[in-house]
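Good day; I would like, with your permission, to put a structural problem before you. A protein sequence and the structure tokens that stand for its backbone fold form the material at issue. The record follows directly beneath this note:
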Amino acid sequence: MLQARANEHLQGACRLSVALATTSEEVLEAQRLRYQVFAEEMGARLDGQEPGIDQDMFDPFCEHLLVRNEISGEVVGTYRILAPSQARKIGNYYSESEFDLVRLANLRNRMVEVGRSCVHPDYRSGGVITLLWSGLANYMVRNSYEYLIGCASISMADGGHNAVGIYNQIKDKYSSPIEWRAFPRCPLPMSAIEGSRDVSLPPLIKGYLRVGAMVCGEPAWDPDFNTADLLMLLPMSHMDKRYLRHFVGR
């Protein structure tokens, strides 16, 4: 069983743990947190059939990583994980609704997709993201998967200026090789939007880049979530060895 623990100061001592969900009720806890963050906080249009729950056709095929406050019992962070075998069962990766992944076809048998990452607003000091990354790294190493992909979202509340500015800031240093480029199905109109010069990287994107991930091309626009999404790719062989040792203890 995947299990790790860390301490974080949050209004007093708070013990956090990370583990994969093992019951349907634990999956529901993750889906409730997702609804709280994506719908109530960010205003996303979600098509879930149950009130207060974010769920879609991919959820039954995914494993769900949870960070829990062990004192209160509350789930305060989550990531969902789609393994290659499960992607074959459902027929595609979630990110293929936003990007053409034809150039990643030869990676699919070793490629895990992560998504629906969110953290409770009271727990965004960094400890939860660190635990989620620890859980993901352990999952990848334990199962001998080589590639990790996922969409990192940037709010479009400002009309896209921050998103364009962030992409322009990172593209030269962090772009993937051309043979690993992905192509947005609904591209953000980069030339029509002036990029903000004063940008700060969202924690998720900063985390991806810090551990060694690359951005696979220009952002896509997701109208349901009103975000600009960057497809990130992390070959485990490129993962910063200091972080790998920190996350998996080797």
Summary: The chain is about 30% helix and 25% strand. The chain has one domain: 3-248.
